[in-house]
Structure formats: C-alpha cells, structure tokens
Batch of 2 targets.
Target 1
Amino acid sequence: MNILILGGDGYLGWPTAMHFSKKGHVVTVVDNYFRRKACIELDVEMLCPVPSLIQRARLWHELTGQEIKVVIGDLTQPEIMRGLFNGTTTYTWCVDSQYPGPPDTVIHYAEQPSAPFSMINYRYANITLSNNLLVTNNLMYAVRDFCCDTHIIKLGTMGEYGTPNIDIEEGWIDIEHKGRRDRFLFPRQASSLYHTTKIMDTDLLWFGVRMWGLRVTDLMQGPVYGLATPETRIDDSLQTIFNYDEIFGTVLNRFVVQSVVGYPLTIYGQGGQTRGYLNINDTLQCVSISAEKPADRGQMRIFNQIMETFSVLELAERVKAVGHQMGYNVQVKHLENPRKEAESHYYNPTYQGLIDIGVVPHYLTDETIAEMFRLVSKHSKNIRLDSIFKGIKWG
Ligand code: USQ
C-alpha cells in the first residue's frame, strides 16, 4: 500500500511509519514539528533528545534499506495538503523523488493532542481549534477533490464520549423516539477544548462521508502507554518522542517516570477517574489492521480503540507494586485536581470491533510495567522535576 502519515514525527506517528515501512509499504510522513516547538515554548522536555524526523528517516534507510519519504510542512495550509494528493509535493528528504501516486490510506495524527495544552488560555485554545479543524478539513477536501477512494484513518479519542451514566457504544447508537427509530452518532460531551475539537473532527468527516461517499475509519483511542516497539529497539536513535510532563505526558507514562525519580505519583483528586488504555504496540496493530481491512466507500466506521479499563488509583497501585519489587520507593499523593472532571463515575465502554477484525490485545502486565521502568531509568538523569506538575487549572 501507499501510506501517508500525517503527524509522522510524534509519539505514535514515527513508530507507525517504521511499522508500515518494515512491512514493505510505501510510506510518506509529514510533520511541522509542532510538539517539539511547543515543548520549547512551554519549557518542558522529552525524556531524551530525539533526532529530527529527517535524521531518523535517513538512519532508517541506512539500517533497513527502506525509505520513509519526509515532508516538513504545515498541513493547515491547503496547498501543502493538496500537494500530497496531486503530485506537486516537494519532499524535504527522500531517496527516490518520484511521486508514488495518491495514497491508498492516510493515517491522520496531525493534531494538537494535549487536553491540558488546550486549557492553558485562549491562545492555546485557538491553536488547538485552528490546527485540528483546519488539518482535518484540508484532508477531507484533498481526498474529495483528488482521490475519493483513499481510506482515511483518523485518530479520535474516547474522551469524545466523556463519562456518561450509560454504556458507551462504538460510535453509534440506535434511538427510539415517539415510536420511530433511527441511528445516530453516540452522544458526545467532552471535558476539554482539545477533546471538543476531536468531536468536531468526527462531525466533519461524517459530513464528508454523507456528502461525498468518503471512506473513513475513526479510531476512538484511550490514553496510550509504553516506549518501545520492535522497530524502536533496532537502534537508540530510532526511539520515539516520549513526554512525561503535565502537558504532553499521559498518566501511566508519567507514573513510571515519577517512580524512577522518587516523585510521589500525582493522583488528581480521588483517582476514581476510569479510562480505557492501550499499549503503544496495540496502536500500531489497530491502525495496521484497519488499513488492511478498510472501511467501504460511504462508510464511517468507528472503533473504540482501548484494550482494558483502569482507574487512576488502580494504575498507581500497579506501578507502585512493580516499583517496589524493583527496589524503588514509590509514594503516591492525592493532589487537588487541576482538571474539571468526574472523579468517581460509571464507565462501561464497548470495545469489541477491533478484536473482531483481528487485533490481539497486549494487556498491561507487571513485566510490561517493569520494562517501562528499565527503559525510563536509562534516561533518569534527564528527568526534570519542575516539569512534572505545573498545575494548569481547567476550571
Ligand atoms: N491523571 C492523573 N494524574 C496525572 C495525569 C493524569 O490523575 O498525573 C488523570 C487525569 O485527570 C485523567 C486521566 O488521568 O482523568 C487520564 O489523563 P491523561 O493525561 O493520561 O489523558 P488525557 O488528558 O485524557 O489525554 C490523553 C491523550 C489524548 C487522548 C486521550 C484519550 O493526551 O491525546 O486523546 O488520552 S482519552 O483520555 O480516552 O480521551
């Protein structure tokens, strides 16, 4: 397949690019280094310095003989997006500069992915809104105008649903009202501006499916954990961007880093907040199988991309237990919750669709947590305590 990955420099984008490239697909990645620039602006750092996208693509080629074409560009500019579909793109780095044709599959990660970032103030809210909606709209129109058959795989988020007091279905719900029945998108009610943009993305693409018969898979992903995939293990310089700070770090990754440096685990409020989680390797599996088994033309296929659910307290207990076995003195601390969210709630999402198409879950084992400890501890000298908790208030 000819695969285009939007947001190819990120935590998930780069491992996804290597995953598809290793399987022999033609891969192009696009990124504007948003995350790297935002980390500098907000004075937070990644666990370790990661070579640029071009340097990693060059190394990947040296080590494997496979090419990942790189475009450094801002996809909110329609011309940059459209060039990838009509053959007028200029590669920033590649081995073979011949255009491989319009993509069979586009994997869309090119979004501002942090809920706390979106809640800092109106400026960061605007960056989130304009980036996420313009990139999605530019993608939708490029596909509509140049290759309606391209399969769009968009990363959505479980946070679109919020924490309703009813079971969460996979994207759709049948409603009977005054004796008549119809099928609708499951009610969404986000608790951050970032999550709200993801709802709007879903609405945009659903519009494109109804209007122009596009082919879309929307993956409602929960928080991801982990640092290593088979391809990042090939060489230290191929590792992925890994954040542990309050803005870009996700909770389990943060807890492992906190344990390694003896920082009490930052449980926000009561810790009863329950979410669906998945290993970074399962993100690759879900995206990969979705690409191999695409949605039909005119179908908006929605999967809940999680493998199991945990409360924050349960995660903290799991990390603490493994840390103690490994000789770390892990403490936990309940902090006043900087976010506005339910701390004790019903949560029962359905997540069968991806398993039905062939995904085999990697569950969170003690060994998985222990491996995270081992990988993080290699870089413990880089960990900055001051970026672990800044207390960005949402209320
Ligand atoms: N939490 C803590 N302590 C921390 C960090 C987080 O108690 O130090 C709590 C949060 O309050 C929240 C839960 O852990 O209740 C998850 O927080 P998170 O920061 O891991 O995840 P979230 O902000 O929801 O966002 C992340 C990704 C986002 C993705 C989302 C999936 O950054 O891109 O869309 O997970 S989901 O949460 O299902 O919406």
Target 2
Amino acid sequence: MPLNPVARIMRATAIAATLSAAGTLGIVGTASAADSGDKPQIDVLNWWTSGSEAKSMRVLQQMLGDKGVKMNNDAVSGGGGSNARTVLKSRIQSHNTPGVAQIKGPKIQQWCETGLIGSMDKAAKSDNWDEHVAPRIAKSLQCDGEYVAVPFNVHRINWLWVNRSLLKEVDAEMPQTWSQFVGVLKKLKKADITPIAGGGNTWQVGTAFDALVGTVGDAKFYRKALIKLDQDALSSDKMVQAFKRLRTIQKYTDPNAAGLSWNHNTGMVVQGKAAMQIMGDWAKGEITNDGKTPGEEIACVTMPGNKNSYIYNVDTFEAFTVDSKSRQKAQAVFANTVMSPAFQRKFNMAKGSIPVREGTSLKGFDLCAKRSAQLYKKAKKADALVPSMSQDMAEVGAVKGAIFDVIAKFYNTKDMTAQDAAETLASRVKQAKQMSQL
Ligand code: BGC
C-alpha cells in the first residue's frame, strides 16, 4: 500500500537528511509555493518547448482553464529532458516543488522511493484507468498499487521522415530495406542534397541508434540487449552492425549539425534543406505546425530495415505532494482532463503522438497517426512492443548514461571501430549496473 501522509513526511524527512548530509541536494521539502488566493492552480514542469510542443501544452492550459484551474506551464528547453530533470531537483531543494513533473519509465518508480510523491489514485479509480490503459503501461504509473502518474500519449521512435519532392528530384523510391536506404543516401549526396538532418547532440544520435538497433535484430534482440542488458547481446555481431550503420548515417548527415536542435532539423526537412530525419513522431507535430501534412509532402516511413519492433515512448506526468487542498484539487482535475477522450484527441493531434487511452477515436488524425496505431496493434500481437532506451523508458540514469557515453564517443571518434564500440558498450553497461547496485 502507498505511504500514509505521516509515513510519507517521515520518509521525505529521512531522505532530505541523507541527501543534505551527502551534500547533494541540500534540504528537500514537500511544500510547494504558497497558494495565491483560492483558485486551484498547478505548476507543470516539462521540457516541451518546440513550436508544436508549446501548442500542445496550450491545449491543456485551455482545457484546465475552462475547468477553473490555472496552469503554470513551467517548460525547460532541451529535447529529452535532461535540463528539466535538473530543474526539478533544484526546485525541490528550494521548496518550490511543482504539482506535476514530466517523468517517464522506471524513473517514476525511483521517485516513489523518495516519499515526495502525491497521488492520482482517486482520479484513476473514478475514471477506471485500469480499463483504458494497456496493463504494462498502467503498471508503470503506479507505486504500491496506487496511481501516481498520468499518461498523455504513445510516441513511436523508429520513424524516418522524408521530403518527398527531394526524393523525386533524384529519382529515388521510398526506401524500405537498409540497402535501398543506403542507395537513396548515395543518390542524394551525389546531387548535392544533404541526405540527413540530425546529429546535433547525443540525445538525437541516441534516438537514431535506438531505431538502428531495431534494424539489426527483432524485438527479442532489442529487449535482450537494451532492456535486459545481456552481455552477449551487447557485444554481439548484431550490435557491431548497429554501430556500423550509425557510422553510415553519420557520413550522410549534415556536417554542420553540431548544437542544432531536433526541431530545427525537422524544419530543415520540411523546408527542403535536407531530405530525411530519423526521429520519433514528435517530429510530426513540427511538420503539422509548419503547415504541411504528414504522410503527404513529408512521408513517414518505418526506419528502413526495421525487423518488427515498435519502439515506444509514453509521456507521463507524476504528481508531487502539495500542501493545500486547492492544489490537490488542481492535481485531480489535471489527471482527469489528461485522460479525457476530448483532450487525448486534441492534444495528440497537435503533438504527433497517438492517444494512450484505448478506444479513443482517430477520426481526423493524419495518415501517419493511423499507421502508428495499426503498427502498435500489430506489434502488440507479435509481442514486439519495446520501451525506448533513448527516451528513458527502459533504463535508469547510470546505465542509460553509460550507453549514451559510448554512442557519443563512437560518434565523435571517427577512427573508433564498431567492434570496439560494441565491446566498450558491454563493459560500460556492466560497470554501470554494478555501480547502481551499490
Ligand atoms: C518526449 C517527447 C518530446 C521529445 C522532444 C521526448 O523525450 O517524450 O514528448 O517531444 O522528447 O522534446
């Protein structure tokens, strides 16, 4: 059972003492900023700062506003959320805990351990989330059997976004296999067209690597390597091949990409400055926001060569303990609103994802969303749904950090061999696992 309020405070106090003794976080408080009047309000800490992400958040702000809740959109830039996670910790230190924060995958459970987490269980029970959310996802939202987080969507990672007219210009077909893809890359380069926009930072390279692992092995392999962290799989020939493919991608990527954000890179594809981008379907939000129709001018293609994996990412927001009835009320309204079919439709249309609430109508969604929903069902049947390593759905801090370090080292060291990278990956993951057990 979840901690009762007294036990929660005791646990939070104990953790605060430990953390400040260790000099890491200083004093941790469960109190949020003082209430301003009686109007329910909620601070929503997130990393959704691109054009389409901000637009999606305005959908939420508006719907909460209509229900009398003021939402403060505390967005911190940085794709993948590492800056937002740092801000969350410092806000807790300074007694300015948000009502909810964007936290995903196993990190939801880690936060439970702190005793600083609030509850969304009443909202979940009253709307029967157990019936509306896939069991595996529902489980990840609970601590000790109580819902503490609400899911927004399902994003798919292993997509390739393609500017159709640039492909036409070089007389290339839409690639489906890896060798067709390499053929297209060559044609584009020869025609002086930047084949791929990407590589701006490690998170973008890690996202592409996720998709590449899906091309060298099936969902079983992905799980064995990146979720179970099996040493043989991590150093296998398949993993060597994944690194080789990453090197190929790098060769055809915009050489001036350093520091460019993922959404800038999506813009390059939309504007015809580059032909393709490997990215999760939040890219679709940007395409729509730029006035184009995903599936038409910009095609959505499964990462060429993908075996059968649907690599998924579910955005979730976890509740923190708040100090007043009106803030608790705001949390409940937040949870109910996010899971409502109306929000699920409107938000996901803007965001590029598909509704996480099962049975939500996709009427009016674009072709790529419909395709994503079909592929999700197919993968579910084939047991080929896999949580994304790069988007924190599979690994906790230290292990994911080690994987990203190796990917970055390989990307930045052009003479590092793929063999070397796979071996380093296995040993760094082993070390990180051991360290995290200490
Ligand atoms: C999030 C997406 C977001 C993307 C870029 C991912 O980690 O899950 O919702 O759009 O980062 O910011």
